[in-house]
Specification:
Elements (H helix, E strand, L loop, with lengths): L9 E3 L16 H12 L6 E7 L2 E7 L3 E5 L4 H19 L12 E6 L2 H11 L4 H5 L4 E5 L2 E5 L3 H20 L6 H8 L5 E4 L2 E4 L5 H12 L6 H6 L9 H24 L2 H13 L6 H8 L7 H16 L3 H16 L10
Parallel strand pairs: 4-5, 5-7
Antiparallel strand pairs: 1-6, 2-3, 3-4, 6-7, 8-9
Length: about 350
């Protein structure tokens, strides 16, 4: 992988992966028929059809905003997935001052096993495949599609929520977001809870990111704000500790800009997002062309330059000026969780 290239939309889910889901070929025909009937009766599902992957059976179903291809035939996961995806779509929409219209259905591939996910990735992702195959547990967004394999219902939802944000940005934003902003926002959709028939995304309960932040604070490994803004996931790919630290800090940065000092930066943060959506960032024409044209590969140098310039412009202060307040916020946030290390 070219060191100057940015690996976009990679989510690492740490911990031991649970057993794989049920592949279609292991499901009796009568059970598959019952599952299809159940899925067709699920609120929000508009269409269900057979789908074949590598000569194996699967299903494809459609909701208002999504078309999902899957080889995972776990009734519990599939019956809850349509509602989860549609509530995620609503949560993405709420990041904007006005809703955006659906142009066409968003594509999701959900595989029962990692081996299926790997086989699909090799044929689907082209030159990017080696980078995605390096993901130990998780998912990716590429070429318009979220590509996920089953890692347990909660972690699979976490991956879908994260990668779904990248898909939403790609589809509806005129300009590509710098890594800290895109990844930081994606982490806000990794934890969800259901109540009164609705699914809510609760960034404050993202223990995966909070624990990683606590460890970075405890080990005195917090990155400066200027260094964080200049980074992208490609800089830390293959180093689990640094990857966890990067995602934890961009998670904290988005929360800082929304919540710190009673929301003092919230208006500026919302304007930054609004102008990315409408294409109104005041960038030089050559930089704007790269930001707008998704056929042009993003580079680390571009990400660094755009991140720092936009931050200064929209936040009204340099990263160096805000660094102490951001660091204090990270420390405060980190101490909302406690880590009990096991004895050797």
């Amino acid at each position: 992988m070219n060191a100057a290239s940015i690996v976009v939309a990679v989510l690492l889910v740490f911990g031991t992966a649970p057993a794989a889901g049920t592949p279609a070929d292991d499901v009796p025909a009568e059970s598959l028929a019952a599952l299809v009937a159940r899925l067709r009766a699920t609120p929000g599902v508009r269409r269900v059809e057979d789908w074949t992957f590598e000569e194996g059976r699967g299903l494809v179903f459609e909701t208002r905003h999504y078309r999902v291809h899957t080889t995972l035939l776990d009734p519990l996961v599939l019956s809850s997935l349509p509602a989860f995806l549609e509530f995620a779509q609503q949560a993405y929409q709420r990041q904007l001052p006005e809703p955006v219209s659906r142009r066409y259905l968003s594509t999701v591939y959900l595989f029962a096993t990692r081996s299926q996910w790997e086989a699909f990735t090799r044929g689907f992702a082209g030159d990017a495949a080696p980078a995605y195959l390096a993901i130990q547990k998780g998912a990716y967004y590429h070429n318009g599609a979220c590509v996920v394999y089953h890692i347990g219902i909660h972690r699979t939802r976490s991956a879908l929520g994260h990668e779904g944000w990248h898909q939403f940005v790609h589809r509806h934003f005129a300009l590509r977001l710098p890594s800290w902003l895109d990844e930081g926002l994606a982490t806000q959709f990794e934890v969800s809870q259901q109540s009164a028939g609705r699914i809510h995304f609760v960034a404050g309960r993202n223990l995966n990111r909070l624990v990683a932040l606590r460890r970075a604070v405890a080990r005195d490994r917090l990155l400066s704000l200027s260094d964080l803004l200049a980074m992208n996931p490609g800089h830390v790919l293959g180093d689990d500790d640094r990857m966890a630290g990067f995602y934890a800090q961009v998670y904290a940065l988005v929360r800082f800009l929304r919540e710190a000092d009673r929301g003092i930066y919230l208006g500026r943060f919302e304007r930054l997002l609004h102008d990315a959506r409408t294409g109104a960032w005041p960038l030089p024409e050559d930089i704007r062309r790269i930001a707008a044209d998704r056929n042009i590969p993003l580079t680390a140098d571009f990400n660094r330059a755009v991140s720092l310039a936009l931050f200064r412009l929209y936040m009204g202060q340099s990263p160096e000026q805000l660094d102490a307040r951001y660091r204090a916020y990270c420390i405060e946030l980190a101490h909302t969780v406690r880590i009990e290390e096991s004895a050797p």
